[in-house]
Amino acid sequence: MNSNPGSTRSPNDFPGGTQTARIIAALDALKAHGGGTLELAADTISLPNTNTWTITESIVLASNTTLYLNHCRLKLADGVYDTIIRNEGIVIDEANPNGFARELKRDSNIKIIGSGIDSAFIEGPDIQYAAPHPVRGGKPVPWIGDYFGWRTISILFANVHGYEIGGFSMRKTTCWAISQEHGCEDMHIHDIDFLTTVKNGDGIDFRKGCRNGLVERITGACADDVIACTALGGFTDFPKKTVNSNEYYNFPLEVGGRSARIEDDVIENIEIRDIKASSKCHTIICLAGGGPKVRNITATDVEDNMTYAALQVVAVYTGYGTSAASGDISNVHMKNIISNNSPMTLLVNAPLENSSFDAVVQRKAGGKTYQIQPPYDTQMKNVRITDAAH
To answer: What number of other Cβ atoms are within 10 A of residue 212's Cβ?
Structure first.
């Protein structure tokens, strides 16, 4: 494991209190010395000893900190409404604790590393948090999925530079597994196996303001998109009633809201490779709408598995309010995109510029290799699809 320099501490060094309190004490000790590694392995204090660490509030990681999951399970306790891990720079607005952050301070050099996908696990609760609906009231309902905001996300980073996440499996999420936004740069996300079953059960989400990242060796199955590059304008006030249903976006899903300058709301320079995962929606999406842009995205060797059948393996599209304009999605280059179990390998349903898709393969009987949806079929600018085979 390539961890941060400095000392290594364990919650076992702090024998008093709950598992959560001991983890916080270990992190405080590391922060006091400028950083280091928090190792979660066997809990030798609790009786009986256990390799499961159950937390009642989010782990908050400061700069220069490594969280090392050494043959253990990190689990959110039943009935807790919170992220599992987030960075310290997300400064909560105490007057509106489920709303936009009061500030996104910059953090750097954070690592979440596991001993391997078969031995290290990050897991949501067995029993999800439930309470009366924030708008409608009534009987308790599970607070899961995008309607219930950023606290449903398992790992949330905002304005973090130079970080690494990988080497574990994720299970029992309550919305997106990993989300990054607003100033996240120079990330390496790798060797993660997902199994998600809930609404909005994405794997890895890049939101507005993410750039310069590498994603590789991702496996498993997601109830929603496995990897999403999603740049949407978003709402500025909550709750917000949905257009086509009697539901509400009760709290923001992006803790940083919308940037003051639209040029900051860009997702760019993301490399994706060696993805073998299935989805009920898509394996990879590039999605823009309302002004923010997605550009310079590359993907190679992307293949679905047989757990779920996606709508498409790859989709480039727009929607969710104001549609993308010409130039909002550009320089998307993908190669070796394979469908084994999805009815379509590639869908383009947005204006697209200066992009290429090579070796697009459909192996499912009766499936379609690709489609460019009208009216965008006449609006492509320098877009090539080559070696598309069934």
So the answer is: 15
Place of tokens 């490779």: 273
Residue ranges of the domains in the chain?
Answer: 81-389
Task: Extract the tokens encoding 202.
Answer: 């994405």
- Using the Cα atoms of residue 313, residue 314, residue 317 and residue 320 in order, give the sign of their dihedral: positive
Q: What pTM was computed for the model?
A: 0.97
pLDDT < 50: residue spans in the chain: none
CATH number of 81-389: 2.160.20
Q: Give the pLDDT of residue 260.
A: 55
Q: What is the pLDDT of residue 5?
A: 66
Task: Extract the tokens encoding 320.
Answer: 């969710």
Longest CA–CA span in the chain (Å) reads 67
* One-letter-per-residue 3-state SS of the chain: CCCCCCEEECHHHCCCCCHHHHHHHHHHHHHHCCCEEEEECCECCCCCCECEEEECCCEEECCCEEEEECCCEEEECCCCCCCCEEECCEECCCCCCCCCCCEECCEEEEEEEECCCCCCEEECCCCCCEEEECCCEEEEEECCCCCECHHHCCEEEECEEEEEEEEEEEECCCCCCEEEECCCEEEEEEEEEEECCCCCCCCEEECCCCEEEEEEEEEEEECCCCEEEEEECCCCCCCEECCCCCCEECECCCCCCCCCCHHHCEEEEEEEEEEEEEECCEEEEEEEECCCEEEEEEEEEEECCCCCCCCEEEEEEECCCCECCCCCEEEEEEEEEEECCCCEEEEEECCCEEEEEEEEEECCCCCEEEEECCCHHHCCEEEEEEEEEC
